[in-house]
Amino acid sequence: MTPFRNTIIQGACTKAMPLLHNQTVDFVLTDPPYVNRYRDRTGRAVRNDNRFAWLKPAFVEMHRVLKRDAFCVCFYGWVHAEKFTSAFRACRGRREMAPVSAAWAAPAAPG
Length: 111
Hints:
Elements: H1 13-16, E1 25-30, H2 55-65, E2 66-74, H3 81-89
Parallel strand pairs: 1-2
Helix pairs in contact: 2-3
């Protein structure tokens, strides 16, 4: 395992978090694929936006690396909110954790 100190790690969580020791992270911010098979007007898609297999293992890893009084922010699509919150709740037996959800309407893209 690599020791990280005062470091921002950018990468796939399922590849980056196994490099970290238990309970060494103060804050996790993640904006994973929303798993809603998003396509823009030109047909471009978001990679890995069509499967949930990574979700529970990623949350287990987040729980493992976060310190006891740490904080995690995870953005997710409202359509599948229950899948994200259930993955989060699956970790609760290991430590006191409370999911909080917020929703807002984004303005339509111009054009």
